[in-house]
Amino acid sequence: MSSKDAVAVAADIGGTQMRAALVTRGGELLDRGAIDTHPDDGIEIAASRLAELVESLGNGNGNGNGRVEPIGMGISTAGPIDPDTGTYKNPPNLGAWDEKSMKPNLASRLKIPVQIGHDATLAAFAETQFGPHRGAQNLVYVTVSTGVGGGIIANGEMVTGAEGHAGEVGHITVIPGGQRCNVGCDGCFEGNASGPSIAKAALAHIDAGETTAIWEMAGHDRERVTSKVVFQAADAGDVVATAVREHAVKAIGIGLGSLLNIFDPEALVVGGGVAQGLAARWDEVVSSVKRFSLAHFQHNPRVHLTTLGDDVGLLGAAGLAFRHER
What we know:
By secondary structure, the chain is of the alpha/beta class. It has two domains: 142 residues, ATPase, nucleotide binding domain (Nucleotidyltransferase, domain 5, 2-Layer Sandwich); 168 residues, ATPase, nucleotide binding domain (Nucleotidyltransferase, domain 5). 36% of the residues lie in helices and 17% in strands. The strands form two sheets. The chain has a five-stranded mixed beta sheet with strand order 3-2-1-4-5, with helices on both faces. Strands 8-7-6-9-10 form a five-stranded mixed beta sheet, with helices on both faces. A hairpin with a 3-residue loop joins strand 1 and strand 2. Helix 3 crosses helix 11 and helix 5 packs antiparallel against helix 8. The chain is globular. It starts with 6 loop residues before the first strand and ends with a helix. About 2% of the residues have low confidence.
């Protein structure tokens, strides 16, 4: 196999699902698979199950090309995590894995080098390796979804911080006195712009007795009040839903504007379910960012929706493996 044709194993680990794929140097996914994470079963069992998934790739079950020997493995994972050792540090969605690492088990079983990084950091790295921002030396990636997280590339290097915790942009204060996130940060980005925070804001209006189509569209079921339903109701002209959406857009504008001011990136790339839900109104998001950023960003705020979609984690993991290729 030539260097150009080399492939890496990429894995993306979340609290619900683990995905794996064979990825070429150019970012083509040759084969992929997914299994449930079941984090409460323990990290050793999860590592064994992930290894089995990896071993199934390229055996003719997805691409028909037979087994391809990878140059190494990269893992994108929810954290916090030490990127050197792969040791988790109080991960909120992988609690049973605290102070543990699957890196040694995977490297021993698969007989290939294994590298691990935080998912948002590797998403930022993926944006600099693939797609329209390939080659960028200074880039910030922000995911606005169930939570809000960030990844930072500065001068071509991944910024991980002293213990691998850099990029927790979801907990910068954007609305003093506003809603709190699940870890108790008052008025933070995540507490005012994430999917659950948007649902929480809508439910506060409903609990106050305000009339809104959100409640009807959710079938009078609190669990079905989501950011997607709120945005749909707002698109239909609902006053309450529009106010909730405007609050979220303001919070996003403050958060992203602050990051532009601090990092001066070539591109600030945004992904995640909430961001995609605002795609049809992206001009409003950009206008909000301009409002809260410095003057030199007014003409070109450099804010973009990701084009890499849900594969951004796998691509970042593959890029990490290639970066450490021997």
